[in-house]
From TrEMBL:
Designated gene of the protein: icam5
Metal-binding in keyword set: no
Cleaved signal peptide residues: 1-19
Membrane topology of the entry: Single-pass type I membrane protein
Keywords: Cell adhesion, Disulfide bond, Glycoprotein, Immunoglobulin domain, Membrane, Repeat, Signal, Transmembrane, Transmembrane helix
GO MF: integrin binding
Major localization listed first in the record, in broad terms: membrane
PANTHER family noted in UniProt: INTERCELLULAR ADHESION MOLECULE (PTHR13771), INTERCELLULAR ADHESION MOLECULE 5 (PTHR13771:SF9)
InterPro entries cross-referenced by the UniProt entry: ICAM_N, ICAM_VCAM, ICAM_VCAM_N, Ig-like_dom, Ig-like_dom_sf, Ig-like_fold, Ig_I-set, Ig_sub
Name of the protein: Ig-like domain-containing protein
Amino acid sequence: MWHLRMLGHLMLIFLLCEADSTCPTESNPLTVHPPEVIGEYGKTVILNCTSTELEYEEMYWRSGTTTSEKEDELDFVGWSVPLSDWHVTAKCVIKLNNSAECSKDAEITVYKNPVKVNLFPTKHTNSAVVGRPYELQCDIREVAPVKNLIVRWYINNQIIKTDSFNNTSKTPVNTFSTSKVVLRKDQHGVQLRCEAQLDFGRSGPQLPAMYATYNVSVHYAPELKNPDNIVVYEGDDITLTCGVEANPPPAFIWTRDGVNMLENTNKLNVIQIKASATYSCVATNYLGSVTKIINVRVIANPATPAAIPTTEASTKKGCPLVLMPAEAVVRFGDPVSVNCSTTDVAHFEGMGWEAPFGGTGFEKSSLVTWKVENLEEWTIESKCYVNLNDSQCSVKPDITVYKNPVNVDLFPTKNIHAAVEGKPYELRCDIQEVAPVKNLIVRWYINNQIIKTDSFNNTSKTPVNTFSTWKVVLRKDQHGAQLRCEAQLEFGTSGPQLPAMYATYNVSVHYAPELRNNTDNDIVDVDEGDDVTLTCEAEGNPPPVFNWTRDGVNMLENMNNLSIIQVTSNATYSCKATNYLGNITKIINVRVIPRAAAPAAMPDPGATTKKGCPLVLMPAEAVVRFGDPVSVNCSTTDVAHFEGMGWEATFGGTGFENSSLVTWKVEKVQEWTIESKCYVTLIDSQCSVKPDITVYKTPDAVTVSLDSSPMVEGTEYKLNCDIINVAPQEKLQVKWYKGSEMVHKQRFSDPIVTPVNVSSTLMATSSRNDDRALFKCVAELHLGPKGPELVPAAESSPYTAVVYYKPQIQNCPGSYRGVEHEFHMDSLICKADGNPEPTLQWYYQGKRINASEPLTRAQSGEYTAKFVNSLGSISTTVHITIEYPPSFNCDKSYEVQADGKLQNECVPQGEPKPDIIWYKDGKQMSTPQYWRKHDSGSYSLKATNNHGTANHMLYVDVLYAPVFRKGSYTLEVTLDANVTFDCHAEGNPDPVIRWNYTSADNVMETTGGRQKNISITGATSTNAGVYVCVATNKVGSVAKAVTLVMKGKTRQFPRDIIWILIIILILITITILIVLYCSRRKKQRKYSLVSQSMPMTTKANGVQA
């Protein structure tokens, strides 16, 4: 055999020499295993190279300028190659002699899974148009090698396209794939998905696909879907439906025989139709329009008109009013309208709507409509009334205003994240800002099975925050169950069918330790001297801590398994498994079965292995690393009977010597099982002892990898720790670390002494806190007191965990102020944490908006931020206030009563609220609170806020009631005297003046300027009395009184004296007449007399008529 091997070696050298020191393929003795390696960047791979040619000078691995340790005896060489270079190469080289060598390359592929995948439309158009190509782009970031990248496109999980790449770059690149799709209208809301996956074939690693999704809205022009000919009885009510569907929803215009009906909804209500007509409905969106013609033919009603349906009947029996609709459910902020018509035309005088907003006033029409463009009140106090010839009545519509919940949150009430088996676990479902709460239904589910339903009795009509609680008792097999609460407003079958808002919670169920086989007392039979592993077989959640005892003595072991080496006697072992919920104990009785011949006891260090054998080993036990030197001294204590001694060994033997001290020495231990013994020959006997040699080898590599699919919060994951080429296995202990904290420990008991590959597993439930956590495992060889002082160990490179979890809001303000035409929702800092990274969607009044469009002042209000990723969504609200510069929308003139306020103040619009300054005649003045009679005039108003200034000119006319210059007084006159008294008043507007008195022939009124005079010529006793002057304008009336008193009444005298007096009086009269005549020629006066019987009411500065 040796000759043939030498012959082959010589032939190989001859061939290599003939080939100018090259290595022909058919003669290459090298085999690389594995021939092709695919590994993740940053990890380490193990390469082995074996040779069929055993006669060589050296064999080694070479990578760039680095070489491995050179082997010159074994037929293989291994190497751990770190994948830290994208262009890494590895070549196995064997040097046969000084002039010939062969080599073989290992094919190494270094990969990196994509860091992120994004999907978006190329033209930033959020909506597709039916029938038109809609292009999306899938961005894949930092992937290598890109030639192995496959991108698959899906519509609702149906694959539509696959892309591959020709780029030969080995380093990470950013690349993309595009897909043009043509969608139908029935695909509105469809989910498009792109998946990026590195594909290395069936033999390569099966890597998870990274993906991104995009839900697309499909727009299409209006389309008709209903018939268009209707026959109806005369006097009936009818509702016409346009029957058009489109996306975005169209705007509607209705006409009747070509006349616009000012209706802009999908439906048209016609009350008490009288005659046939042609109605047209034009539906329009930005993609087009369509017209529907509806021919309504009215036929005579042969019978009494049908009673008004219950849903449209008036609210009072006998009141001839019909509401259409009588009941309505309206979302807060949406438009609403109700038609009111009368059925009693014969006695009809007029009708109208009374309402705090949207009222119509009194109208002669038999059909009036209450209409509100934006319903922003929670309590609706509106009624329709009708005036008949002899009565009045009214009806009220039943209007329900609703608001869907802003947010639903689910959490345990006591902040305990784990339930305990068999004990009530209470959860609370918070529902925020919902109205009306009496229509709210909350449903509870376990794994999609409904368990409980809650309703509410609160009659509040405004939005409230409320909650529902649920106590659930869970079993251990429900660990990880998904609990869900759904909140939904229900208004019956005739009301709107609103979507349910929900929140989920995955619960961990804890339970005390239990024995898997339900047996708490086991008997284990084992042969004497054999090894045995005892298993506690207990499980619990959280995982229990184990404590082992032997015959009541603590063994300081805390694992599920207990390894016993060379069992020699019966014993009772107990395993106690404990967690915070309890403990359980398992008793294991180990019975030892004696062997036919008992093995010799292991000597202590320096003692012989057999009783009476006079040999001493130093050391008796040794621990040596594979490839290191080892030596053991053997001496005899029986020199008197000594003849000779020596070592028998597979290598390092000494032969028979006369010395009483012989040494077994090996320069390089390259065997895993040491068969050596020291023997002594005495005069009458021979005996021998064996040293206890443990050969160990630290691992070539220790790596950590994820065994299952990607980690998802709340699910169990499995990490594998692969330990390559370690010996002996029974001394191996693996420790798992998360960061710097040890989370798991595992020991191995298999008594294999040659190098093996070993795996350890870490099972745990992932949480979002584990994302980006660093896991590593450390392989330690615990070789006992004779081993190295420092425990031989090798640790893996850190494994970075990637945990996927649904979004959680981190930073989002409750309110924000922005500037009109500048602020858009994209500029608001609102962030959430999630993996995959969540996308942010903004909603306003329940509809998704384009967050990049600037907002206007009309768009202030509550906005909902919804963060979405593939695992769920979360929402929050932000109150947005849009600021804008001041502006005036006021009249140019105002009227106000003195000492009063303007009924309609001139208030500028603006946000923030502008500061206003008043000017009169160019001078700044304080803002008038009450207007005085002399404040009439022109004013200039200046409004200012942070964003600008606005000016406005107005005229204020201050009105005041009439005021007399002179109040009431009494005037005394003599008989036959002429008297004149005037009445003059000021007021705005100018007052109208009139006199109230008893007329007489000698009383005359005259007008001069703003006054009216009374002139009395030749006053008589009949002219005595009260004369009342009344001044009136639109503000009020005032009066003053002038009391005319006659002087000169005489007593009864004797007749003679009377005649004398008469004669004297006649003379005096003639004289007076002459004087008066002359006086009249100079100046003429006017007087008036009023009856004393006229009633008077005194008023300040005058008398009220």
